[in-house]
Here is the input.
Amino acid sequence: MKREHFLWLLSTTANVSAAPMLISGRENGDLFFSLDSKFRISVFEDLHFGEDEWTDWAPEQDRKTVQVINSILDKEHVDLAVLNGDLVTGENLYLENGTHYIDLMVAPLVNRSIPWASAYGNHDIDINSSSRALMEREKAIGRNLSHTNSMVKGKEAEVGTSNYYLPVYLSGRKSIELLLWFFDSKGGWAYQDRTSEGLKVPTADYVNEEVVKWFSETKKAIRDQEKRVIPSLAFVHIPVYATADFQDAGIDPKKEPGINEEVLGVQGNKCVNKGRDKNGNDEKDCHYAGGDTPFMKELVATEGLLAVFSGHDHRVDWCMKWTATKPLPHTDPSTGNDIHLCLGRHTGYGGYAGEIPRGARQILVRQQNLREKSVETWIRLEDGSVSGHVVLNTTYGQDSYTAEQTSHDGAWDDAKARG
Here is the structure.
């Protein structure tokens, strides 16, 4: 990053309006439900800081992304922000200072003392971009605000970095009420690694089997310790193949409201470097090979898992129910134990999206509704409006939503949230 660009960006993003003064969901660095028995998450997808950073317009693009984050945080009370992949455009970064984009993207969170957690994506790892270096920068800046972690040992290009879980406690006592799982779907190119021909080395774009093993063993250990099933949510940047299979069958805009203007890219591909294009850029040749099947099977086997949230594709933001009533013909497993799979709105001005307004998915978990397997979610747009406001519950996928319902501004009352 050019030093003058970085200093200009910092100066233009330092002054932010104050967040609403509401009850905090944090105590002593841990995550807690607020005293109103709610836990609120804002999911920022595909920020793509540093895209084409050598140009004169790149800093303005990043400034606009910070503005989107600020506008959403001015509207939403947030107990945890999730940076759900492609925080940066790693192929455009310089080795010596690419991690400094973390300073810009988390400034709105630091200024409001909002904790955050990251799940890295395919653009976060490249020849000059290390997801582990990004995590260390998060920790250096965030102190007790950054909850990003790495709980699975192994090489960055194989297991990734952001594989971990966070407990959310009931306010006032150390009783775990909710688990948040984070997974690294990788992709991109291996950090500081080239073939003997000088080509970059592609990394697999799915959750590694060692991570799946860790997930299985950790779930069992928590279940044995707590003597009960704890409801959970999961975050992974690249969506699993089940979403593409569902999309192929046809999205009903009344039952699965949201934008659907792009064919989904999913986990599970086998990729090779096919050489360089006419501009000297390394190119991949990829085809789906079922690499995410172990991960999908483990998700389905997870008792209490309510929903999985992904990004990656910038022109889609609907949710689906992975259910036995609508089996997926090309997916293993074909049915998903009624897990909801949700795609998020593109947040950043880096990366493609055209004229689609930027925004972020909001998640509202009401403690009393967890027993009913109910979670509320909507998209908060950069202009302050709301779209795709739905309740992920036992009847999602059967219920029909009107445009008025899905654009309702603010949280619904408890009766509506229960469906």
Observations:
- The radius of gyration is 20 Å.
- DSSP finds ten helices and 18 strands in the chain.
- The mean pLDDT is 90.
